[in-house]
Write a structure and sequence with these properties.
Shape: globular
Helix content: 40-55%
CATH topology: Rossmann fold
Number of helices: 8
Number of domains: 1
Order of helices and strands: HEHHEHEHHEHEH
CATH architecture: 3-Layer(aba) Sandwich
Strand content: 5-15%
Largest sheet: 5 strands, parallel
CATH superfamily: SGNH hydrolase
Strand order of the largest sheet: 2-1-3-4-5
Oligomer: single chain
Amino acid sequence: MKLILILLCLVGQAQARSLVFIGDSLTEGYGLEPEEAYPAQLEKLLHAQGKTDIKIINGGVSGSTTASAGQRVKWYLKAKPSLIVLALGANDGLRGISPQESRKNLAEAIRLSTEAGVKVLLAEMKLPKNYGEAYRKDFEKTYSDLAKQTKVPILAFMLEGVGGIPKMNQADGIHPTADGQKKVAENMLRALGPHL
């Protein structure tokens, strides 16, 4: 009987798929409980659809930029994920980091993932309009250019319906509330659908 249970556990482990979300405070769920962050809420939505074999790993770290992308991918590859979502770059934009530098960092993270045989999805980032038209356009073009260059699918802006909407954000106006994070999870669910 014990042997049968062990075998069933091993089969269950072999069939499980892990998705890693490498991001910043938006992914981490800054100011909220871990279960309120969009990766945890997304896992619940997927399980409700019957995709109970999917486990989501929240790799969000507040304050992080694309500079950490390569090292973090190397770390999370140890978990043998079936898919990595790169949701980085917002802090690069807010700090005025060169879009070329961000592109280089993200390209390295994509290279490391694909060489390890792991599918990668790139989450598009946008900046508020008060960041200057030229810089904002160059920053946002980073994602579409990189997706074309690396042939990696791009996920539409995850803060659609959240960014700039006071009731969906905490007092700082930047980080989503639990309801805002739920909306992000719903956005991610739609975007991820064809890739699962």
